[in-house]
From TrEMBL:
InterPro entries, sorted: NTF2-like_dom_sf, SnoaL-like
Keyword Signal applies: yes
Superkingdom: Bacteria
Native source organism of the sequence: Zunongwangia atlantica 22II14-10F7
Keywords for this protein: Signal
Protein known as: SnoaL-like domain-containing protein
A UniProt-annotated Pfam family: SnoaL_3
Length: 174
């Protein structure tokens, strides 16, 4: 009888333990699906020049870092930069061709990287998402132009003067 009770308790604890881990996995899958939808909708809003939808998908304290060394914008600065582009009826059109999403053990923070098909060729976007008021928001985004390794010397040469001036400005600023 004791063996049966022990076996029953053991089975119950095993089932309880299994049921505790399953929702976590499906929540991760669900979170990744939701995050994918948000990022895709964000890119779509830019392609359609929908300023409101685009910025509604970003957190109130979001940061956008563009391809130029001077482009490190807090949300209001980025809105000011982006508004004229959106007002023209078409901002930028980025389509993800590959994306990886990562979640922390604590719920509410995720990060991602993606390769994008853009008017600049292949670019890489990377960002941080946070779960705010029951929805995922883009909190930080970095856009980079991909340069093949065999072209790095040529590109470095092209931007040498700009980089030299920029480095001097940054060093005096700090």
């Amino acid at each position: 009888m004791k063996k049966q009770v022990f076996s029953l308790i053991f089975c119950f604890l095993g089932i309880l333990g299994f049921s505790q881990t399953m929702p976590y996995q499906s929540n991760n899958d669900q979170a990744k699906t939701e995050i994918t939808k948000v990022i895709d909708a964000w890119h779509k809003a830019a392609g359609e020049a929908n300023f409101k939808n685009y910025f509604d998908l970003m957190s109130k304290d979001a940061v956008f870092i563009g391809t130029d060394a001077t482009e490190n914008w807090q949300i209001d600065e980025f809105k000011a930069y982006a508004k004229p582009h959106f007002d023209k009826g078409r901002a930028w059109d980025f389509t993800a061709i590959e994306r990886n999403i990562y979640l922390t053990d604590q719920k509410g923070i995720a990060w991602f990287d993606e390769l994008l098909d853009t008017h600049m060729g292949i670019c890489r976007g990377s960002g941080v998402m946070k779960y705010v008021e029951d929805e995922w928001k883009i909190a930080h985004y970095v856009l980079s132009i991909e340069i093949p390794n065999e072209n790095v010397n040529e590109i470095t040469s092209i931007k040498k003067d700009f980089d030299s001036k920029m480095l001097q400005q940054l060093k005096t600023k700090n």
